[in-house]
Amino acid sequence: MTDFWKTLKGPFFVLAPMEDVTDTVFREVVLSVSSPERLRVLVTEFTSVDGLCHPKGRDAVVHRLMVNSSERELLEKSGVFLLAQIWGSDPEKFYQASRFIADNYHFDGIDINMGCPADKIVKQGACAALIGQNTLAAEIIEATRKGSSLPVSVKTRTGIREHITGSWISHLLSCKVSAITLHARTRQMMSLKAADWEQVKIAAEIRDSIDPGIRIIGNGDVENYRQGILLSEHTGADGIMVGRGIFANPWFFSAEPDEHRVSAKLNLLEKHILLYASTWKDTRNYNILKRFFKIYVHGFDGAASLRARLMESVSAGEAMAAIHHFRS
Length: 328
What we know:
This protein has helices spanning 24-32, 49-52, 55-61, 69-78, 91-104, 119-122, 134-147, 165-174, 198-210, 225-235, 245-248, 262-280, 287-290, 293-296, 303-312, 316-327, and strands at residues 12-15, 39-43, 47-48, 81-87, 109-114, 152-157, 179-183, 215-219, 239-242. By secondary structure, the chain is α/β, with parallel strands linked by helices. It has an eight-stranded parallel beta barrel with strand order 1-2-4-5-6-7-8-9, surrounded by five helices. The model has no long low-confidence stretch (mean pLDDT 96). Keywords: Flavoprotein, FMN, NADP, Nucleotide-binding, Oxidoreductase, RNA-binding, tRNA processing, tRNA-binding.
């Protein structure tokens, strides 16, 4: 299979994987208002390899890999790539999960999470706990590569308690991954301290000396498209990953932003609500949808009262009624 990473021209942008956020519904909503020359890669929510490798556990996690037919149509039309992100600590399960994904889904690559700082995950020896565990990390990457012909990338951080960017990134580069996304914080920093983009610059410089063909993507505190371009120019990163920035503006990747128009915000919110309801029906908690309301309902007269009504809603129907009442 062709490694799509080699076809991307920098600087390119990636929507970060986020728990209970970047499901097929939200990815499609963002994609629908993005310019394909700006947004080039999407990533699923992270999926447990332990869950994928057990028939009973699989039922609890496969929704994270779901891709709506409408999202697939948009992806193919725009030429945007989609990665499946997986996490765990057992190389054999990474092999099995990679094989399962390749046999049952249509993804453009597999991304390994070596950066999530959550205590419950780290205590399992996974994600950020893998930083500095060179032998195990290499075994996981190799197992994932052997499981399928899909290109493999890694998303990680600069260290656990202190930056070890030089040694850690050098090791990952030696594992011959296609791309490395570096969240410019240590695990201990969580998201409480500002991202240190000088660490991304260090990573890009090391890449240039070891293997210029591997893509480096920087991540952390990118608030707008222009800032991302400047950070790419400063650090030498090929790409920029955007996480929380999308919550401030769903039109983050649009060349013709429409976020200041109230009607545009409400239209996109309605699209999100209806798509969420038709996609998940009763299989996912409606309250998950509520975390998105502030993305659309802010910065205009009456926004606070509308948002309050939306937060009180218990169904998509009630939410749509609240919006209709606001419009009338």
